[in-house]
Amino acid sequence: MIEEPLPLVFAPSIERPPTEVVERFRAPTSFIVDAMNGTGALDWRIKQLVGGSFVGVALTCDCGPLDNLAFMAALAESKPGDVLVVATNGYTGAAVTGDLLMYVARNRGVTALVTDGLVRDFEDLEKVGVPTFAMGLTPNSPQRRGPGSVGLPIVCGGVTVASGDVVVGDRDGVVVVPRTRFDETLGNLDRVKAAEAATLERVRAGLKELPVQVPALERMGRG
User: Fold this and answer.
1) For the segment 15-63, what is each residue's pLDDT rounded down to a tens digit?
2) Burial of 24 by CB count in 10 Å (0-12 exposed, 13-18 middle, 19+ buried)?
3) Does the pLDDT value for residue 13 go beyond 50?
């Protein structure tokens, strides 16, 4: 006899980075991407619907299409500062959450919700105020049957995300920094911030040609 698979699979443990490390990533998403050599951004269609910019720690769940049992389980496992990253395989037939579960998320100190699916109850989500980044809106409701996973690596918006990664979001989109790239990215981020600030000061003072333009145009014989 073949046994039925468990409706949900949980990671044995989740290691969250210290808050002081997470806060060092508080920067525009474009800076983070530049510090990661042009990578890390989720699908451009995952946009800010509610709230403002955020930085936090990924807590992943894979709901699959038309289901949110794993999301509910992840919510029960969440801690203050977590970003719930919810994979639905890009399903657009139903919402993965609405206002009531997001009120619970706010009460538990969740920093943000990021999903490659849809959400609903937009007006009430605005009242909840937790930053919510999704593909869009629909009034359709999901089922609660599973299967799914909580805390295990997922693919969301074309990017692999693991619990414990840092997630940064703003009006440009969402970027994920893998734990294995923290040191590299933070080192680069300091240089990106310094270069951006110096160039911005020169542009505001009247600079008519960015430094990156010169070599690019010279290669084309236009320098």
Assistant:
1) 999 999 999 999 999 999 999 999 999 999 999 999 999 999 999 999 9
2) middle
3) yes
Pairing of strands 132-134, 112-115: parallel
Q: Hey, what are 179's tokens?
A: 């734990």
Element (H, E) at 85: strand 82-87
Q: CA-to-CA distance for 153 and 156, rounded, in angstroms?
A: 10
Which residue type is seen at 144?
R
Q: What is the per-residue pLDDT for 122?
A: 98
Query: Which is nearest to 34 in space by CA: 152, 184, 211, 138?
Result: 184
What are the tokens at 223?
């320098």
Q: How far apart are CA 33 and CA 109, in angstroms?
A: 27
Residue 144 clears pLDDT 70, i.e. is over it: yes
Assign domain 8-180 one CATH number from 3.40.50.1370, 3.50.30.40, 2.30.40.10, 3.40.50.300: 3.50.30.40
Question: Token pair of 218, please?
Answer: 């010279």
What is the pTM (predicted TM-score) of this model?
A: 0.90
Question: Across-strand partners of 119?
Answer: 97, 137
Q: How far apart are CA 16 and CA 195, in angstroms?
A: 30
Residue 86: beta bridge partners?
A: 61, 115
